[in-house]
Design brief:
The chain is built from six helices and five strands. By secondary structure, it is α+β, with helices and mostly antiparallel strands. It has one domain. Strands 1, 2, 3, 4 and 5 form a five-stranded mixed beta sheet that branches. Helix 1 packs antiparallel against helix 3. The longest helix is centred in the N-terminal third of the chain and has 24 residues. It is globular and about 40 Å long. The termini are far apart.
Length: 160
Amino acid sequence: MANSLRNKDRWVLVEGPGPGEAEFLGRWLLAAAAADRALQERFKQNEILKEQISSVEIVYQIRFSSAATKILELLMKDLTAFSLPIQSDWIDLFAVMADLGFFCLTGERYQMTVPCEASGCAIEASLLKLAATEHRFALQPEHMIHCISEMDGDHVAFEA
């Protein structure tokens, strides 16, 4: 997990679809479940993938559905947006999901989006990209995503 001092006050801002967008959220959750199935199929096709991404799965197994559920939990607290600190246990999967199209960078924030398709090949490539960020036994997902600091956050406004 990323926990260096320089990341202490860094996070990503995530904007949801807005209150009452159950259809969008349903499609988004189904896309996460489809990504889980595609990853399991990819593990069967590439038997060394588990070994190649072992640094990613030290703490937990990769489950896009679990991350998506946590993200919805965070979103429901405010109903419009939330921040995810770099030190969060969920930042690694957020970086992969952003890479796969579950989030789209718009200005200084990410907007939730339904990916076209998270194929097994794309998931494998993204997980290998995250594993390649490892430095001194810690993943550095901030190399894959746009983070803001406390100073940047003072200037970010969410559009209504």
